[in-house]
Specification:
By secondary structure, the chain is α+β, with helices and mostly antiparallel strands. It has a domain of 40 residues. It is built from 2 helices and 3 strands, in the order αββαβ. Strands 2-1-3 form a 3-stranded antiparallel sheet, with helices on one face. A hairpin with a 2-residue loop joins strand 1 and strand 2. The radius of gyration is 21 Å and the shape is flat. It starts with a helix and ends in a 22-residue tail after the last strand. 9% of the residues are buried.
């Protein structure tokens, strides 16, 4: 019986660690402000999706505080290039 228990515990540990290793794909949040307060929606994979969501209704996009994965290429806001002297 102890062998089956050990196998079950090992299988459980592998499945739990696999689920924890998957990163949250939602990198961006849209933030809205209104007369009755504000709200946010943190279900956008790309900055372009977030900007399309707030277009016309007001609000802005910010990086999700819940995202724990690596940044993706193209998701960063454009930066100004510094002039070399």
């Amino acid at each position: 019986m102890p062998i089956m228990l050990a196998a079950l515990l090992a299988l459980t540990a592998v499945s739990v660690s696999d689920a924890a290793a998957q990163a949250d794909p939602y990198r961006w949040c849209s933030v809205y402000m209104g007369e009755d307060g504000g709200s946010s929606n943190c279900y956008f994979v790309t900055l372009e999706q977030c900007r399309a969501n707030v277009s016309g209704v007001g609000g802005f996009c910010q990086p999700s505080p819940f995202y724990r994965g690596p940044p993706a290429a193209g998701d960063e806001p454009p930066r100004r290039k510094r002039r070399q002297r």
